[in-house]
Write a structure and sequence with these properties.
The chain has about 600 residues and is α/β, with parallel strands linked by helices. The radius of gyration is 36 Å and the shape is elongated. The protein has 2 domains: about 45-350, ABC transporter transmembrane region fold (Up-down Bundle), CATH 1.20.1560.10; about 375-610, Rossmann fold. It has a 6-stranded mixed sheet, sandwiched between helices. The longest helix has about 55 residues, at about 85-140. The chain has 19 helices and 10 strands.
Length: about 600
């Protein structure tokens, strides 16, 4: 024991040194990330540099004219006090008044430009960030969406970017105007009375320190609020998207309670933010009033001692009013920075998320394939913490072959089909189409030649024709109708109010489940790919529609490679070959009659369904 204790004591300094190194390395990485994000933030101004410079020039004019007006007032008051003859004073006063009107006109034009054109610059940058976010989300792999929630992503793309526009607009101009107004007013004050101006200057660091302290508190509270409002969006999106399920189970009260709980958490998160904001506002307002009181008291004392004139005191008070605006603009900038930049950081977290599935630098376009699919020793798992779905999986599908994939639920049938168009990448082995590794061709060309009807039926808001043309926007009306007929969908489409121009609602809510399924099949037919994948493609069809689609599927499968997944074995009865997949891999293969004769797993599945 003493030896062990001694060794532990000797190793402790090394351990602490290692932790210190890790913290230093982590801090350096965080600093590098912050600088990278700041450069990214500033880069959005690049396309708008001319407008930005014009906006800053107008900001300079706003600040300069604000400082010039108290100076003009000082000239007027001094003229009145110096000239005893009223007739002699009228002319100079009117001249200064004319100059002040010109200054006011310049100020009005500059403020209008800042508020209108500056806001448009911010709105354009906001739109660019939102577009970049959306386009990046389109590139992210399925594994990213397996980890994320739609409501959270919607909040980042919509709510967070709204504040970005305000920050991109008001950030530069508020800083410029605040600095110029404060600097110009202080120069005037030092010129009039250095003692009183120095007292005002000494109070500034205290106000800045106070503002920075509550800035940090507001920032932390705002980040928490953004997370909570994203949770509110997620709750709304989930509940309204599933409103039919909610009402069918009479769970409106349950959903209301869930929303109320989430809404209350958001309200609580705002409490700390509002408290810090209140202290911040109290401090900024008190700073302005404290300066005013200081000027009146100290200025009165200096007038009595003949160190300052009444005209100078009036100018000081007018300049103090100018000094209030920089403080308010600083408060506004702090608020916008918190709301805008924290939103920008949340957006950057998405933009910094690299897609798992990308084209290799040397990727080439996949020519029209004959359709051979070969799995060679394929291994795959969704994450490192769970068991692999496949290990050493190998089989070949010949060009033009109609292959059915069956087996118990949860053995990876849908996962296997998701590997062919590279929705996920294999972790071992390779998948070849016509002898070409699918990782060596571009994603666009690969997916152009692979048609997928997924288990989760999804239709977009719009008309029937728009949904059918999703895979081939240039398709003619005749081609659209032919695809619909092949999927046994033409008759029910023509029975709709506007035929192919009928709006089907969000996710096709105006259609039945079988109708939605047939439209997705028709959409795949219209794409006319060399390889077809049907993942539970007939699961939502009634018996009559299923038979019609089965016949259409057989006709379409002629001359092209087709992979069909189905729990209902009647769907795959006429397949050229049936692969039986279990947790141990493919354990049986052959046509229906051959597998029934083997009296194995397939025969067992078939007998279970036949008895139901």
């Amino acid at each position: 024991m003493p030896i062990l204790f001694s060794r532990a004591r000797k190793s402790a300094p090394r351990h602490r040194a290692f932790l210190k190194f890790c913290r230093r390395d982590s801090t350096a990485a965080e600093r590098a990330q912050r600088w990278s994000r700041l450069r990214k933030f500033l880069s959005y101004y690049r396309p708008h540099l001319q407008l930005l410079f014009a906006d800053l020039l107008c900001a300079f004019l706003v600040a300069a004219t604000a400082v010039a007006l108290p100076v003009c007032a000082n000239v007027v008051t001094n003229r009145i006090l110096v000239l005893s003859d009223a007739d002699e004073a009228y002319g100079p006063i009117l001249q200064v008044g004319g100059v002040m009107l010109v200054i006011l006109a310049v100020q009005i034009v500059a403020i209008f430009f800042v508020d209108y054109r500056g806001h448009m610059m911010g709105a354009r940058i906001e739109a660019a960030v939102r577009q970049e976010l959306f386009e990046h989300c389109q590139k992210l792999s399925f594994s990213f969406y397996d980890r994320q929630r739609t409501g959270q992503l919607m909040s980042r793309i919509t709510n967070d970017t709204l504040w970005l526009g305000e920050l991109f607009h008001h950030g530069p101009e508020d800083i410029a105007i605040a600095a110029l107004k404060y600097g110009g007013a202080m120069l005037v004050l030092f010129f009039i009375d250095p003692v009183l101006a120095g007292l005002i200057l000494l109070l500034t660091p205290l106000a800045v320190t106070y503002a920075l302290y509550f800035n940090r508190r507001m920032n932390r509270a705002l980040e928490a609020s953004k997370r909570q409002i994203a949770g509110v969006n997620e709750r709304v999106e989930d509940s309204l998207a599933g409103i039919r399920v909610v009402q069918s189970f009479a769970n409106e009260a349950l959903e209301s309670d869930r929303f109320a709980a989430q809404n209350q958490r958001f309200l609580q998160s705002r409490s700390e933010g509002y408290r810090s904001e209140a202290w911040f506002s109290v401090g900024t307002e008190s700073f302005a009033q404290l300066i005013t009181i200081l000027v009146i008291i100290v200025g009165g004392v200096r007038i009595v001692s003949s160190a300052m004139t009444v005209a100078d005191l009036l100018t000081f008070l007018l300049c103090v009013a100018v000094l209030v605006d920089p403080v308010q603009r600083l408060a506004n900038f702090v608020r916008l920075w918190q709301e805008g930049y924290t939103g920008f950081v949340r957006a950057m977290e998405i933009l910094e998320e690299a897609p798992d599935i990308i084209d290799m630098p040397s990727a080439r376009s996949l020519p029209e394939p004959k359709g051979e699919i070969r799995f060679s020793d394929v291994g795959f798992g969704y994450d490192a913490d769970s068991a692999g779905v496949f290990e050493h999986l190998s089989f070949t599908i010949a060009p033009g072959e109609f292959v059915a994939l069956v087996g118990p639920s949860g053995v990876g049938k849908s996962t296997l089909c998701s590997l062919i168009p590279r929705f996920y990448d294999v972790q071992g082995g390779a998948i070849h189409i016509d002898g070409v590794d699918i990782r060596e061709v571009t994603l666009a060309s690969l997916r152009r030649h692979v048609g997928v009807v997924q288990q989760d039926v999804y239709l977009f808001a719009g008309t029937v024709a728009e949904n059918l043309r999703y895979g081939r926007p240039e398709a003619t009306d005749a081609e659209v109708e032919a695809a619909a007929r092949a999927a046994n969908a033409h008759d029910f489409i023509m029975a709709l109010s506007d035929g192919y121009d009928t709006d089907i609602g969000q996710r096709g809510v105006k259609l039945s489940g079988g109708q939605r399924q047939r439209l997705t099949i028709a959409r795949a037919f219209l794409k006319d790919p060399a390889i077809l994948i049907f993942d539970e493609a007939t699961s939502a069809l009634d018996n009559e529609s299923e038979r019609a689609v089965q016949q259409a599927l057989l006709n379409l499968a002629n001359g092209r490679t087709t992979v069909v997944i189905a729990h209902r074995l009647s769907t795959v009865r006429h397949a050229d070959r049936i692969l039986v997949l279990t947790a141990d891999g493919i354990i049986e293969q052959g046509n229906h009659d051959e597998l029934m004769a083997q009296d194995g797993v397939y025969a067992g599945l078939h007998s279970v369904q036949a008895s139901m």
